[in-house]
Each structure stands twice: as structure tokens, then as C-alpha cells.
Amino acid sequence: MIPISFEFFPPKTDEQRDSLEKALPKLKAAAPDYVSVTFGAGGSTLNYTPETIRHLRDNHSLEAAPHISCVGGSRDEIRTLLAHYRDMGCRRLVALRGDMPSGMATLGEIRYASDLVAFIRRETGDHFHVEVACYPEVHPQSDDSHADLRHFKMKVDAGADGAITQYFYNADAYFHFVDAARKAGIAVPIVPGIMPIANFTQLRRFSELCGAEIPRWLAKRLSALGDDADSIRAFVADVVGDLCRRLVEGGAPGLHFYTLNRAKATLAVIERMR
Ligand code: FAD
Predict the structure, then answer these.
(1) Ligand 1: centre distance to CA 253 (Å)
(2) Residue 216 near residue 205 (C-beta atoms within 8 A)
(3) Active-site option among 7, 15, 123, 271
(4) CA of residue 161 relative to chain centroid, distance
């Protein structure tokens, strides 16, 4: 069976905690290899991410991997976080630059994710399995796909063990990207990031920020379904489930689901795929 992983954001309120607690047993039943927890760039989840990691490890026996982003942070802060995660028993990290929260003036001491990976390797050797991000539809701040690929290679050359893609709905974008990466000498596994859609308005907002393309036909069908959550779920299970199947048949080494801390949409896609 294809390895899967689930991504969560760290809950900050009791309501968000309850919602994650409800989703966890259902998602665990799908037997993820590991789960990951995002990090608010600029330190907005400096305490929440480690707290959530500890909770998932101690109370749910999940292999939980923290995301670490370097934008807006200092070397000392990152060093402290790495030591903290090592003490908790974590063996896996997702290393990112992050996006500068609006209004924050300083970039931080480590500028790019490749520098962060190099820093992690200098500080902790081979202790952590390090994943990085990559972009089949090109990072939104990059107007040159060749340069973007070179920057991806720099992260791998700095010591990344694998990569997870930004989400996409066009399987060919992934296959072309993997081909280009292999030709550029990038040998690590490239796992597609999968976004099951529960809320079209929210998805449109995310996609504008992260540069993921929603195909016109998909946008039209989703907006025609309006707020009908059950119909959206059934339609998305078909479309995204088929996407996952194509990716797996085409050689994807795993699937990483952006769950948004909810179980239903993700599980509907997995069920359809399997
Ligand atoms: P980088 O690899 O540093 O690239 C950023 C940009 O700089 C790209 O345009 C790249 O081409 C360019 N670049 C890189 N190196 C150089 C260089 N040496 N010279 C010039 N240009 C360069 N964000 C969060 O805040 N928290 C999270 O937890 C989080 N998790 C994510 C998980 C996944 C799987 C993915 C795909 C994204 C995630 N993000 C997260 C979003 C991510 O932080 C943003 O996409 C961010 O804009 C770029 O991060 P990066 O690590 O890819 O940066």
C-alpha cells in the first residue's frame, strides 16, 4: 500500500483542539506513516507547534514531524527548537523558508530554506530525516521555472532527504516536474501534496497566495455546487481520488494530505483512491 502522511496545523483555541481530537481517531485508522504539524512563519506558533507535536506523540502514539521555518527567526531560536524536538524523540522535520507575515520588517538570520537545511545538518548531523517543499507549478515568487528548480536542487544538495510538493490538480504538472528534477540530478523522493477540497471559497483564497492553479472546469463545477457540503465531498472524492490514483500509477512514492485538521474530505479521497 502506498505510504501516506497527514498534515495538521497547530490548534490554538479549545474549539480547534476539539475539532482535531475528533478527526484524529478517524485519520489514524487510515494508518499514516507519519503526520506533520505546520509552523507559523515569524514565530506565531512558536509554542503551539511543539505542544501539538508532543500531544500527538505522547497521547496518540503518532510519528509526528514538526515543520520549521526560518523567515523572521534567529539561529538561536532555531537551535533551541531543534534541541527541543530531538529531546522529544522526533526523527523527522519539514524545513521551510516560510512566508513573511505582513507587517514584519526583518527577514531573519537564515534567508532561504537551503540555508536552513545546511544549518540543521551542521547543528544535528544526520539525526533528522529532512523534507523540503517543492513546486510543480513553480513557486509564486519565482518567474523562472529553471531558477526555481536550481533552488530546489540547492536544498537537496544541502542535505534534504525528500520533498513534498505544493498541491496541484493537474497530474501532468507533477510528472513533468519530476522528469525535470531527475534530469537536473535531483534523486530524492518527491511526494505529491494533496489538497482535498472541503470549502471552495477557502481553497480559492489559499490558491491565490500559494500559486496553485485550480483548472477552470473544476472551479466552475465547484462554484455550481455552492454550499452543498455533501455534494462537494462526493465530487471532490471522485476528482481528487482519481488524481491520487493516477499519481500512484505513474510512480509517486507516497501521498501527503493537507487535512486542514478535518477527517471527512481526506478519508473520502483515500477511500475512492483505494
Ligand atoms: P525556498 O526554497 O527558500 O524558496 C523561496 C523562494 O526563493 C522561491 O521562489 C525560490 O525560487 C527562491 N530562492 C530560493 N533560494 C534562493 C537563492 N539562493 N537565491 C535567490 N532566490 C532563491 N509555510 C509556513 O509558513 N509554515 C509551514 O509550516 C509551511 N509548510 C509547508 C509545507 C509544504 C509541503 C509546502 C509545499 C509549503 C509549506 N509552507 C509553509 C509554505 C512555504 O513556506 C512557502 O511556499 C514559502 O514561500 C517558500 O518556502 P520554501 O521553503 O519553499 O522556500
Answers:
(1) 22
(2) no
(3) 7
(4) 15
Q: Which spans in 29-159 are helix H?
A: 48-60, 75-88, 113-124, 145-157
Q: Which residue CA neighbors atom 14 of ligand 1 most closely?
A: 151
pTM score, whole prediction = 0.97
Residue 213 is among the residues annotated as catalytic for this protein = no
- The 10s digit of each residue's pLDDT in 101-116 is 766 666 789 999 999 9
What is the CATH code for 4-273? 3.20.20.220
pLDDT higher than threshold 70 for residue 66: yes
Tell me which H or E stretch contains 19: helix 14-28
Give the model's confidence band at 117: pLDDT under 50 very low, under 70 low, under 90 confident, else very high.
very high
Identify the burial level of 77 via C-beta atoms within 10 angstroms of its C-beta, where 0-12 means exposed, 13-18 middle and 19 or more buried. middle
**Residue minimizing CA distance to atom 19 of ligand 1:** 151
Question: What pLDDT is recorded for position 22?
Answer: 97
Mutate to test the pocket of ligand 1, among 39, 96, 165 (most ligand atoms within 8 A of CB): 96
| Number of residues that make up the chain | 274
| DSSP symbols for 30-52 | T--SEEEE---TTTTTTTHHHHH
The residues, any chain, with a CB within 8 Å of residue 206's CB and separated by 6 or more, are: 195, 212
Q: At what angle do helices 113-124 and 75-88 cross, to 10 degrees?
A: 60
End-to-end CA distance of the chain: 9
Residue 72 corresponds to which cell in the numbers above?
523572521
CA 152 / ligand 1 centre spacing (Å):
9
> What is the structure's pLDDT at 197?
85
Which set of grid coordinates corresponds to residue 243?
488524481
Report yes or no: 28 and 57 within 8 Å, Cβ to Cβ. no
pLDDT of residue 105: 61
